[in-house]
Amino acid sequence: MRYFATLLTISLFTGLMAxxxxxxxxxxxxxxxxVERIKVHGKSLEGNLEGDSPxxxxxxxxxxxxxxxxxxxxxxxxxxxxxxxxxxRWFGFVKHFISVPDAADKALASGGKETIIVMPNxxxxxxxxxYSTSVTTGDWETYVATELVAxxxxxxxxxxxxxxxxxxxxxxxxxxxxxxxMKHPEVFSAIYALSPCCMIxxxxxxxxxxxxxxxxxxxxxxxxxxxxxxxxxxxSAAAWSPNPKNPPFFLDLPTKDGQPQPQIIAKWAANAxxxxxxxxxxxxxxxxxxxFDAGDKDTGIxxxxxxxxxxxxxxxxxHQFEIYPGTHTSGVAERVEKNMLPFFSSNLR
Length: 349
Prior knowledge:
By secondary structure, the chain is of the alpha/beta class. It is built from twelve helices and 13 strands.
């Protein structure tokens, strides 16, 4: 039976705890870990113009040996969910295409190493933060890479070093993994992007129908009734083209009166990982391990990760890359169990 608990004390721990290294032997047979639900305050999220709470729900998976292992410390994987998703769905509180605790338990039964897994709730007013930095959404980069990491290191028995810290995510979370991972090699040593979205600017809403749909929305109620693509346009604009002088949404869309806005499009392009690789190639080389994948039927995303593979090959940067049979979500649970978690077992100290 999983253990569920709520921690009521919320604080930020600014120092890194001293750590000790101990060998973590693989477990045999299916032994279940435990899950805790906590809240972690983000100073970097305070005052965001969307009005989202800076006190974020966070779910923590603790491996089976955590409760009985005394002083043993563990590596940590920070896992980021996708657009419209939440930590509740990914951790089995709501039926979904994946249950992280189940995947982690199975990975351990197959010989994986015990690891703490942490997922923050990045569901916002526009249904996803894009894990970016914006006055409209808040500074999610700092929240994930600095504040959340410091809190977990301060409240759990972690190996508080980059060599024992990994970052992974799916879809929007895969985008966040690439964005944050390449900017913060001092925090994370290994990254795994599952079907990362938004590797190039998403201008799919610039067709006549998309323009009409996005520009015709003026209230939150109208936003809630919009289709997925239109909502994603708003979330992207809030993250990449914020405008504190443009209420009520405090963002600029990439079109105005049906016409493309070059300055806004340039802002979106500047936030695309494929445009950032050349700038951050030195940081990427500091990472111990890089992996990414996509389903073959997830055609748009598969094309962009193939491009990423080619770019890293041009720089001679070692990495793992795979196009596997599947859609955007059909193979994710199995990928987490059999690919992502073993990847971190091999590459985190």
